[in-house]
Amino acid sequence: MEAKVRAEVCKVTRKVNSHYKINGQRKTAEEEKQNMKECEQAENERQLSEAEENGKLDMKEIHTQLQPFQRTQELQRRAEDYYRCKIAPSARKPLANSGSLFVFLAFGHSLPGQDMDVFFSPHLCAQALQRWMAERKAAYKRHRCEMRQSRECQRDT
C-alpha cells in the first residue's frame, strides 16, 4: 500500500513538475513573442522615421530644383505678356489660328475627323508654315500701321 502511495505521489509530482516545466516554457515562448513584437514595432517605427526624413530631404531637393524652373516660367510669362500687349487684339486672332494649325501639321497631329496619313505630309507642313509666316508678317504690318495712326491722332489732339 505504501508503495502504491509512493508511486502515486511520484506520478503526481512528475505531472506537477512537467506542468510547471511546460508552463515555464510557454511563458518563455510568450515572452519571446512579446519581445519579437516589440522589436518589430521598433524596427517599423525606425523605418517610418527614416522614410519621413528621406521624404523631407526629397521635398527639399525638389523645391530647390523647382525654383529655377519657376523663375524661368515667370520670365517666359512676362515676355509673353509683354509681346501680347505689343500686338493689337485684332492681329492676335489670325496668329493664334494659323499657329495652332502649324503646330498640328508640324507635330503630325490630325485634326478631329481626318485621317493621319492623308493629313500629315511635308508639303502641307511647308504650305502651312509659309501661310503662317505671311499672316504673321501681315498682322505685324497692320499692328504697326495702327500704332502709327494712334500716334498721329494723339499728336493732332
Describe the structure.
It is a single chain. The chain has 2 domains: 1-86; 88-157. It has helices at 2-86, 89-106, 116-119, 122-156. The protein starts with a helix and ends with a helix. α2 (89-106) runs antiparallel to α4. With 157 residues, the chain is mainly alpha-helical. It contains 4 helices and no strands. This is Nuclear pore complex interacting protein N-terminal domain-containing protein. Residues 27-56 have a biased composition (Basic and acidic residues). Pfam families: NPIP.
List the helices and strands and how they pair.
Elements: H1 2-86, H2 89-106, H3 116-119, H4 122-156
Characterize this entry briefly.
This is Nuclear pore complex interacting protein N-terminal domain-containing protein. Residues 1-144 form the Nuclear pore complex interacting protein N-terminal domain. The chain is mainly α.
Could you name the key traits of this structure?
mainly alpha; 4 helices; Nuclear pore complex interacting protein N-terminal domain-containing protein; NPIP_N; 157 residues
The rounded Rg comes to 42 Å
Query: Could you list the spans in which at least 5 consecutive residues all have pLDDT below 50?
Result: none
Largest sheet, in brief, is: none
The succession of helices and strands, N to C, reads HHHH
Separation of the first and last Cα atoms:
142 Å
Tell me, briefly, the overall form: rod-shaped
Residue fraction in strands: under 5%
Tally the helices.
Answer: 4
**Number of separate strands:** 0
- Total individual domains: 2
